Amino acid sequence: MNSNSKVGKKNQIMKVFRISLLVFAFFALSCKEVVVPFDSNHEKMVESLFSNNQSILEVYLQENPKPDWKDFSNSVLALVTSNHPKLKSWGEAIQSQIPNKETDLDSSYEKISKIQEILIQIKAEVPNQSKYNRFYCPMVDKSWLMTGKEVKNPYAPEMRDCGELMQ
């Protein structure tokens, strides 16, 4: 094999490689998730959800809490039936965590914690939700969203002021 045919074969391989790379890049870019923007109606649904979450957490701050999940559940249902794919997905994830009446307090804390993690994700992605702040308690390793800057830990009745405002 002479040196011209080696160079020709090498150029042919490089040409095939470049074409393959371009085809791969095209498919990789075309598979990207479509980003659906949040409109003002979506922001209002999230605001209602956060407001009802605030009400639930305030009940958990009381002695012998007996929360009524009806309004919160209705806010979640609005997300599930919305036309926004992310809100729908988040709503479905929250729905599966809403405590039922038979749930004992300890297991409801776990469910609330999972709900709060989803709400924190929603707050990070849906615009105009700055009214609510994220708090974190290292003693129970849980986060929550509430208004204000004062720590009111809904998870630990014996340590209501345990936690910190997260930025």
From TrEMBL:
This is DUF3347 domain-containing protein.
